[in-house]
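Batch manifest, entry 17 of 40.
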Amino acid sequence: MSFEQELAAKDRVELAFLPTPLHELPALADAIGGPRLFIKRDDQTGLATGGNKTRKLEFLIADAIKLGADTVITAGAPQSNHCRQTAAAAARYGLNCELVLGGPKPEVPNGNLLLDIFFGASLNFTEKARRNQVMREVADELRRKGENPYIIPVGGSNGIGALGYIDALIETCAQLDSMNQKIDRILFATSSGGTQAGLALGAKLSGCSSQILGISVDQEKLDGRPYQQELVQITGEAAACIGVENSFSIEDFDINYEYLGAGYGVVGDLERNAINLLAKTEGILLDPVYAGRAFGGMLDLIAKGEIGRDENILFWHTGGSSALFAYAQDLVD
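Output type: structure tokens
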């Protein structure tokens, strides 16, 4: 079978409204003097205000159900988009949900955290460095009670989750073909790696020639074990899932590390200005942690001439606007 047939044969539940829109941003392009800009609206996947994790969860929740799980466990920051969508997906399919959140418990639950509560998730707060350990501890405790937990990694970023973005790349190529439009670069926020791994593998398998460029929102470039090595591992797992050879090396992943700012989830002028500009020119909301930082990075690369004014650029909106409400003091003067 072809990789498309193998992918179509994988277990999958229905969570997302697909295909998500892909359209041009002419007012923004006019405001900044080019280049030609397009946006892929994965903020419109539909589940719990949308976001890119929904595509991954279609495969991950299916795998959990196949294995007879009654509870899903995952982790993230208190304002995690992934945790919010996982809690909603679990509710949709009658599964319990345990969230391990790295950070102190806020006095007032707002933004994504408020939605986690609405979806019935159990919240476990711990230090960020202990999230994986606490997930295992929660799973062990549930097993002692006779339950059958299923652990989803941070961001849904493993081979199964990455299948959602192989499929997304195929979907996007079909949309661009129908528009008779070629794209020079696809830009997006990258963090836990599943989205970038899936897009990169999908591009290689489908023959897409666009540069797949992740803007890191929290991962630093390391000399010893570079972040790209994690992407190699995820693409290897995803390739095995659909019976294709994984020929990726760390050199095959393009990542920009220049926009880490003051740290993960710390809003600065880059994010603030990007959110305001896109909202006021196109009526589209960015989130303050992921898409806002990546979009701001893209605008800076254009301003510096590293992205040419004659290029065709696609920005992949990964969602998360519900987190805006938790960052109101950082976003409004």
